[in-house]
């Protein structure tokens, strides 16, 4: 066999990173995706009372912007340490921009503003009405199907959400409460659209290589908004606020969004959106325990219905 020429060797060296990138950009396995999904439920569910405390000490837009800045810096450092820090390809650039806009900037901004007016536990439920919007989007755009068990799980889960935010359990005459509810529904819609976009996109980069840039896009959008809308003197710097920011930036934002995007790529959109209803379950319990928010009959009934829906969704997946 003849020796390889210098040109051949250069071609091989150039092709090696592309091959490694394609291998690294493959979705994680199903078991890994489910483990990541469970981790996200705990991190994001427990974060609702943390965010409620934070927006009482810090203006909401500044809080959302700070969360994205800290999360972006964390993921840039992690990606560099893992050897995955690189510019997004032209093919991946649109999904980087859309995730940064919808899942990072719009979702976090709406949630932070809403938490000023809506209890943390109930906010978790309203923000996670995402399945209401994902189901028609996934059926039309992704061609996903619903079997009977999944349909039953969907109906039970959404019935539980309905019980938790039904008008009898809320003061719908309160304009600020209505504004908060509307912002949370907008957050759910933005995430639902982005969830389907992520599933449709054929990734070249990995969640770790693209995550820092997605967070950076959100930060670039929200930092100027915070500077224009809010005064730095409005922040009450305390040890508790610093703890909230550390939890929200490196942990809930950097680790959480990387994990959810990784799971999103490996699981059907409808299954993912239904399964993430476990996050408001954790959020309700954590808010009741930490903030003393009441768990009334409506909340308990909603918890039971959502839990039953999650079981049916899990069983339906096992039969696939």
Automatic annotation (TrEMBL):
Domain EamA spans what residues? 34-164, 179-314
UniProt-listed InterPro entries: AA-Vitamin_Transporters, EamA_dom, EmrE-like
Question: Where does the record place it?
Answer: Membrane
The UniProt entry lists membrane topology as: Multi-pass membrane protein
Q: Does the keyword Membrane apply?
A: yes
Q: Please state which protein family the record places this protein in.
A: Belongs to the EamA transporter family.
| Protein name in the entry | DMT family transporter
Species the sequence originates in: Aerophototrophica crusticola
Q: What is the organism lineage in this UniProt record? A: Bacteria, Pseudomonadati, Pseudomonadota, Alphaproteobacteria, Rhodospirillales
């Amino acid at each position: 066999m003849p020796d390889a020429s210098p040109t051949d060797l250069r071609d091989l060296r150039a092709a090696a990173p592309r091959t490694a990138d394609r291998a690294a950009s493959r979705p994680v396995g199903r078991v890994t995706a489910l483990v990541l999904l469970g981790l996200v439920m705990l991190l994001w569910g427990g974060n609702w009372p943390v965010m409620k405390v934070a927006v009482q000490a810090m203006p909401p837009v500044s809080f959302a912007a700070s969360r994205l800045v800290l999360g972006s810096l964390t993921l840039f450092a992690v990606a560099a340490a893992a050897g995955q820090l690189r510019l997004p390809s032209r093919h991946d650039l649109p999904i980087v921009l859309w995730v940064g806009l919808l899942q990072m900037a719009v979702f976090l901004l709406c949630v932070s503003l809403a938490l000023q007016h809506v209890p943390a536990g109930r906010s978790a439920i309203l923000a996670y009405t995402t399945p209401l919007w994902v189901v028609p989007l996934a059926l039309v755009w992704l061609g996903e199907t619903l079997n009977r068990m999944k349909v039953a799980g969907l109906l039970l889960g959404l019935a539980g959400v309905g019980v938790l935010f039904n008008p009898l359990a809320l003061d719908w005459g309160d304009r600020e409460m209505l504004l908060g509810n509307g912002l949370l529904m907008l957050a759910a819609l933005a995430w639902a659209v982005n969830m389907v976009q992520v599933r449709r996109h054929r990734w070249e980069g990995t969640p770790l290589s693209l995550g820092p840039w997605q967070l950076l896009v959100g930060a670039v959008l929200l930092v100027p908004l915070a500077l224009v809308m809010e005064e730095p003197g409005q922040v009450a710097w305390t040890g508790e606020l610093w703890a909230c920011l550390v939890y929200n930036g490196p942990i809930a934002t950097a680790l959480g969004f990387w994990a959810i995007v990784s799971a999103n790529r490996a699981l059907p959109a409808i299954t993912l959106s239904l399964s993430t209803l476990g996050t408001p379950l954790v959020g309700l319990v954590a808010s009741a325990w930490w903030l003393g928010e009441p768990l009334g009959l409506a909340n308990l009934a909603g918890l039971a219905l959502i839990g039953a829906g999650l079981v049916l969704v899990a069983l339906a997946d096992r039969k696939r």
